[in-house]
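Handoff note, outgoing to incoming analyst
You'll be picking up this chain. Sequence as last confirmed:
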Amino acid sequence: MASSHFTPEQLTERFELSSRIRNLVYGLVGIGVILVLIGAYLAQSADGHNDDSHGEEHAEVVTEDATVYTVSNDQHSDDSHGDDHGDNEHGDDGHADEAHVGDSHGDAHGDSHGEEAHGGGHGHHGPTWVTRLLTGFYMSNLYFITIAMGALFFIAVHRVGNAGWQTAIRRVPEAMFGWLPFAAIAVVACFLFMDQIFEWIIIPEGVDALIDTKRAYLNPTGFIIRSIIFFSVWILIATILRRLSTREDTLGGLRNFEKSLGISAGFVVFFAISYSLFAIDWIKSLEPHWFSTIFGVYTFAGSMASAMATLTILVYFLRRQGYMKYVNDSHAQDINTYMLGFSIFWAYMWVSQFLLIWYSNIPEETIYYVKRWSTEDAEYLGYAPYFYLNLLLNFVLPFLGMLNRNARRDPRFYIPVASIILIGHWNDLFQMIMPGVMFDQAKIGMMEIGWFMIFAGLFLLVVFRGLAKANLVPLKHPYLEESLHHTTGDV
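Most recent structure output, in case you need it:
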């Protein structure tokens, strides 16, 4: 299908992955690798110095009220554990069993788990440079998974809604969710060091009653099986939708278009369940003592806002390179309206979660915010700057920057705002993940920046190659003409 406003060359263009762009991407990955190596070396040296200065190692046992107790390697201080738990305000009722963990499990823990307890992991040792290295990899992988899943949901939900405006730009989110198979490889790698970062794996059975009540769900086998199922279905759906889309360029007709409707509808339902469970497994379970009923929706909101921010930057980049001249300011406005809308939705879910937990004041829920925000509490871990920066980057600045309609059509406004949202999403994941793994030892240094650069470079390489494999516009899509003439009205 063609339009009198555009030449055949403009509608049959393909992105060319030039050597300059390829070198920039490889350079990003290379610099990232160097930063990770230097950061790991410096962190290892610092850890070695700290070990020498402290002299004696200590093991840590984290109990269900998130109190960290230090136990000498020479012997287990069962009496002190018992006293500490006895004085603890959560030692009543359901917490009574844990209050006597020192007495009831002291011998068993000392004999049966002695070697394991002192062998590593944040549940028994303080976080080391290795923990930090692995967590940086883990978080960077999650960051780009959330963006790719947001792009996949964007394509599916617009097909279910029969939306035509996005047809001219759909090849960009299609290239974005092409990252999922590569993310799955990194996920498999994460399986190898789960026991280094997940508290519910590190703490043996019988030590923490609250974690024990969740082991029917929180166990390595179930975790791995669920993750494999989720990624297998997500990748299968992404592959089918992409294939049906590219087939339209050559076959035309409505057959592939109609097939995509049923697949997209089924995916939206599966996505609602699987993505919520994925967020619980991979992020929320890092702090298994914490409860939240809307965490999956909260994670989804951040995913969509960051996916829309990535989409608007990529479309702008392509237009600046001379591609996609058929994309107009109305397309940009709609993408950025989504970006603003999901930023507001993210803030709504953030406030909903915070206010409900603050009002009910249940220890198992409030501990999440005590760690991040309550500076007067002994269990505070020093995350207040990230806590407040989270609201500023993910809501306040995007809201003020994008509220005006014309700002959503002007790259001088929407590109900086999109960049802020992407930084904000990284900060959001940082303050969601690090307190449960690194405690008060989290830092933003060479390792964290390096891992992000490595994954960002690989992600961009996959996206650019995906764009180069097919026409930048779906030539025979039934809604193409509507998209080429898309307008949001007079400015």
